[in-house]
Amino acid sequence: NAGVTQTPKFQVLKTGQSMTLQCAQDMNHEYMSWYRQDPGMGLRLIHYSVGAGITDQGEVPNGYNVSRSTTEDFPLRLLSAAPSQTSVYFCASSYYGQGSETQYFGPGTRLLVL
Amino acid sequence: QQQVKQSPQSLIVQKGGISIINCAYENTAFDYFPWYQQFPGKGPALLIAIRPDVSEKKEGRFTISFNKSAKQFSLHIMDSQPGDSATYFCAASISNFGNEKLTFGTGTRLTIIP
Which of A10, A44, A90, B9 shows a CA-CA span of 20 to 30 A to B91? Predict the structure, then answer.
């Protein structure tokens, strides 16, 4: 199993540009989520999904869109990038339900918005 | 509002010593408390976790101590080794159907010196 994979590893954008961060998992996990990690702030939940066709907002959803058309993929879209979105983005997945505690994180995407 | 407060921000411990990282939470509905370990350039990985029905959980050199009345929990790393040098995050969630909404602390950068 490849686990949770993310692409690209690093991206530079100009203010106002759009892009999609890709996330895929091959563990048949129902639950997937996106976090951003900023110095001194830990990881903050952006959006999450409990299954195909179902998404919901986390703590910091503004400026980001998500969709979940398949169990495996959960892309994160930045419609109009802003310097405040410079961060490291992590995708995570897990089984969904009581006892399914472990969330598996991808290697991250480092995004720089100029 | 930071629902999970973590301290210290950074910690230097000599090899063989005990590393202690503390977290405090505010939401009494939290019922799952994991610790994640993150190495540079990697995503976080689950290290150990506890539920509030026990006051301590030990896995090898890693122990979580939990104080429900004080709303505090801590990670103890016994016989700390250079390979333990990493950033550690505490987290908390409410497990209605799973643990989809992890609230993370701000992280502790641990350095083990020879």
Answer: A10
- Cβ <8 Å between A98 and B6: no
Question: In chain B, what percentage of residues exceed pLDDT 90?
Answer: 82
Q: Decide: A106 and A89 in contact? Cβ < 8 Å.
A: no
pLDDT one-digit tens code per residue, A74-92: 999 999 999 999 999 999 9
- d(CA A9, CA B94) in angstroms, rounded, equals 31
pLDDT at B2: 64
Helix, strand, or coil (residue B17): coil
A95–chain B nearest CA distance, Å: 8
Most confident option among A37-41, A44-48, B26-30: A44-48
For position B95, what pLDDT does the model report?
74
How many CB atoms neighbour CB A8 within 10 A? Answer: 11
Alpha-carbon distance A106 to A27, whole Å?
Answer: 12
Q: Do B106 and A41 touch (CB under 8 A)?
A: yes
Asked if B104 and A46 count as a contact pair (C-beta separation under 8 A), the reply is no
Number of Cβ atoms within 10 Å of the Cβ of B50: 19
Specify whether the CB–CB gap between B17 and B27 falls below 8 A. no
Q: What is the Cα–Cα distance from A103 to B10, expressed in whole angstroms?
A: 25
Q: Which residue type sits at A28?
A: N
For residue A107, give every residue at least 6 positions away whose Cβ sits within 8 Å of its Cβ, in sequence order, or none.
A5, A6, A9, B41, B42, B43
CB contact under 8 A, A44 and B41: no
